[in-house]
Amino acid sequence: MGKERVLIANRGEIALRIIQACKDLGLDYVVLYTKEDEFSLHVRIAQQEESGFKKAYRIANYKDPNEIFSVADEAGCTSIHPGYGFFSENYVFARRATLRNRPLTFIGPNWEVIRDLGSKINTKRLAKGLKVPVIPGSDGPIYNELEAEEVAEELFFLQKEKGIHHPSILVKASAGGGGMGIEEVSHLDAFRRTYRRIQNYAKRQFGDEGVLIEQCLIDYQHLEVQLLCSSHGEVVHFGTRNCTIQSTGRQKRVEVAPGFDPAVCEYPFDARAVLDRIVKYSVRLAKHVGYDNIGTWEWIVSRDGSPYLMEVNARIQVENEISACISRLNGSNEPLSLIRDQIRVALGDRLGFSQKDISFEGTSIEMRIVAEDTKRGFAPWCGTITRFDYPDECWARLYSHVPRDIPYKIPTEYDPNFALAIIWGQDTQQAKERARQFQKGTVIEGKGAKDEDIVTNMDYLYDRIDDVLQF
Amino acid sequence: MRIDQIHMADSGRLLSQLADRISYLIDIKGNSEYGNIGSLLGQIQRLRQSLFEIKESDLFEEIDRIEDRISFLEDRVAEKLSPAEIVNIVRSPQRFTLMDILENVYDSYTELGGEGECNIDPAIVVARATISRRVKNRLYSHQVMVIGHEKGQGEEYRNGGCARPWGNNKALKYMRVAETEGIPIHFYIFTPGSYPIEDYPGAAQQIARNLYVMAKLKVPMVSFISEGGSGGAEAIGASGLRLMGSRGYYSVISPEGAAAIEGKIREGEKLPRKLLEHCAAQLKITAEDNLRLGTIDRIIGEPPLGARRDDFPFFRRLRYEMLRATDELVLKTKNFRAFRAYALKRQAEEGKDVPEDFDLFIGWSLTDLERERLLEFRFKKYIELGKGYFIENKNILTQGIRKTKVFASKTYYDIRYGLLRPHHRNVQKVIEEVSGEGSVFLRKVTEPVRAAYDFVFPQPERPSKVIRSGEPERKSIFAEEWDPYVSPLANEDCTVTCPNAAKYGCLDLWVPDLYGEFCGVCPNCGHHFPLEYQWYLENLFDKNSVREFNAHIASCNPLGFQGYSARLQKDIKHTGRNSSIITFEAEVWGIRLVVAMLFSNFRGGTVGVAEGEKFVRACDVASTTRRPLLAYIHSTGGIRIHEGTLGVVQMPKCTFGVREYNDNGGLYIVVYDNNSYAGPVASFLGCSLYQFGIRSSRIGFAGPRVIRETTGQDVPTDYHSAKNALKRGHIQGIWDRREFKKNLYDALMTLGGPNLYYK
């Protein structure tokens, strides 16, 4: 067996970071690109690099597994990194990669884990079995109106018992997703009508009339736990993150690690204890399912300090870097790279460190710089970026696939997120100041189709920095 | 007629009669080489032209000679008629038609539903007629409904006696009329087959509907078969007594069709005559063979070369036989056993020669009780059809055990659901009423106290759990165990292209995904790739709930069809099953049901005697246990031609079984998958009130090739698709394979009456 060769089945900044990780580990890599991404940075790096084989393959569509596997065969790849999005949480893809006659190492959890944790309903059932708290509601899809009303009644009762003044529940189509087919019901009398509407909608849209009912949480913080596991049963965590600041449509915009900072902000509950609890629960679930790669456990913490498990992202995440920024391995300042560790673990290595080797220092903030109009419902902006400059500081890092020397046209096919800025500070105060300083120094210029100026969310990010970590 | 009695004036007529006889012979033989008939025809032509030029005596001499020659040839032909020649007799334009029968057998008639070309369907003639008989020099007449095919004399609009769907619908309509009026029906079958078009009401559907209604039509019905071609014949043929002309044929498929299938003849190629004759002989289509097999009841003698338009003695005989047959049906239902026996015996004695008059007059109207008995006789007759033409364990001990088992289960279920359940329901009703009264009374007492308590200590009221009665627990589809049966097709590392890729842009599918996770369904466009029947057996029903019964009943070769036995053995060895139908008991989320599954691996899912028997027994099991009956059609190619008319009569037989089951309050659901064509669809499947199609399935009466060959027009490729079948009203819905179980459960819960065990 020769050198490992990794196929990077993704685009944008994650492709760049995977390339970097591969270089660090001394692995060969091959990238894919489509017509729209021809001038993207990851393609240029791959093409410019001297090597004895072809490193960049053009395909028609990132979403066609047949093409990806045929490129993998042609380029002689031995493993495949799906990045995030696209095929990263598609267990069918992972299974195909693992089980085909010429198997590829799928860099991610094994396909059975992806399948088991891929469905929110199944995750919820697993969690309940392990006494991990989940959002109160139905266990699975409900098909019966009487049964549904029973569940709804119970949920209203439980909320009243907790002393919530305006209880409400969510009725959603179990086959739905991305915010489709969800409605809030704030009074039991209105439940039946909503239930029927959602049921009809689900039947029409998704072919399955199953309906989920759960408590509607209004005032909450969105937390995440970053885990790294290996196939040898080792589990370590890299602390928590707070991703409460989101655009409409639940797209994260600003992420902070750690999840809470009791030294700076005041919380109506014991923040440290809550963080400990969600980490403990996450590790418990990971051990139970035999999790063997990188993954993120998403939590919701309500105002009364009770955490609820929402879902598991069985993949590398966009915001993994901030967890790496605040983590110190054996107290050294050597920068961690979770992607590097992920590839290492997927190829069968042991972690090489344990939980007690990891300590945390400082606060890290990630801002996603997106070409969108925040005042008009976060509508994406299309056009060409002509200039993109940012301050070069030791405490800041910026990942972008936008080349700095030539104009770059933002492809309309993919999401308009074009850069990630990661700021580190000794404490939360310093991190916030540095974030503002970084924003002030950043210059983005561009022209749209009708010669209008570029619209980005820089102002929005500037405004929201204050809200970070506040309940 | 002696020659010396003939005058000159008759000679022209005489010559044309001779010419007719010659052309009839040519028709029968299929060519003019036999015995040099062609030259005889030439001689007659010449005589005709020179009629007035030759001497009278010479002319008569010549005619005499030709007549002798023709008689000689006719005798030779009649000596040994091959089945293929019988087919030719039946198809000859000189053969009698329904109009001749109406003129000669019946006294007077009124055509219904149109006359001649101005007709709903000219291929079917319906008439209200009177038929009369002499009893001791007094004339009595009966009212009957006459329904039959009319071939006409080559008119285009008669369509050669091929009834279109609406023609069969017309027949059904007047059957109902006869039922209301309480008069017997006489059917005359002169059809090579039904016209295979799917336009509303659909060829297959309409035949199935006719059979379904005829199973319980409360009037005596007699049918006469001259040309009985498969489904078209059954559409008006499921009567109490079936007569057949001695030179008629009754067959599962036209000999040409059989030859094309047997010889694997491609479209447009010419059929070798040898093969055709071979097939006609193998199919056992003659009257004698059918009588021996029990598919008809009686033969009506025709002249050696078959009756023609002017064969008045034959019509006299036919009238007598029709009267006698109707009498027999009526007499069988009479209360006085002795009278019945006497009358039947008297008639049997008279059988040989047609007598001038009858001994006694028998009225044809029935009382309610007699009608019931009529239906019972008819049901028994059809259920017994084909008995003994399949292989069953003949061991007396096992037979005895089986009979005891059947009897025991019948008693058990009768007591449980027939007696105890209604009783239990009544008791429960009383209890509920009493307890309801009681609680109302109690509440009156406790209400004030409780209200006061709540006022002092207000507390949110915990909702109480509702207990639902009578419904089995509904389980979520996600709660299933995750180790389904995966098709062995999935063990291949390659990709396939969806046939709709060009239209919907589907990506190529990886085979293990397609046959594993996706259940053989393209996730983008929903195209269903065919899956083997085991997949359904394992995945559709609850784990370990499938219990097969009657697996020992095996197909055999009742006609001695050449080469069929070997093919049967090959399939038995290949599939490990004895027939193309599997009957079993199974559960769907706790609802027990009886399933009959036709699958394609065994002789293309065709239906023969063994299959019909198993299906009828499944109906019986479902009926005694009060369970729903599901017919899942993995694929069916029609009636098995190698079993001839024994196969065809499975159509009415199974339909009678279904009708009986439905009338006992059952729920019969049919689900079509892959390809379902011909006989079964036109009978026991098509008659179901609830039929569903799996997506991408094809349902119809005849395949595209048959349609092309018989109608001469091309049909679009999606002519038989489930979507079009839904549009035509054939099926009630299209189901996705992935949601088959859920849909089936829903159907079982919502359809069906209170007689089912779980209702």
Write a concise synopsis of the structure shown.
Chain A is α+β, with helices and mostly antiparallel strands and 471 residues long. Chain A is 32% helix and 26% strand. The termini of chain A are far apart.
Q: Could you characterize the architecture of this molecule?
A:
- By secondary structure, chain A is an alpha+beta fold.
- Chain A contains 13 helices and 23 strands.
- Chain A folds into 3 domains: 103 residues, Rossmann fold (3-Layer(aba) Sandwich), CATH 3.40.50.20; 80 residues, 2-Layer Sandwich (Dna Ligase, domain 1), CATH 3.30.1490.20; 248 residues, ATP-grasp fold, B domain (D-amino Acid Aminotransferase, Chain A, domain 1, 2-Layer Sandwich).
- Chain A has an 8-stranded antiparallel beta sheet with strand order 13-12-9-10-11-16-22-20, with helices on both faces. Chain A has a 5-stranded parallel beta sheet with strand order 3-2-1-4-5, with helices on both faces. In chain A, strands 7-6-8 form a 3-stranded antiparallel beta sheet.
- The longest helix of chain A has 19 residues.
- The termini of chain A are far apart.
- Chain B is built from 25 helices and 20 strands.
- At the A-B interface, helix 4 and helix 7 of A face loops of B.
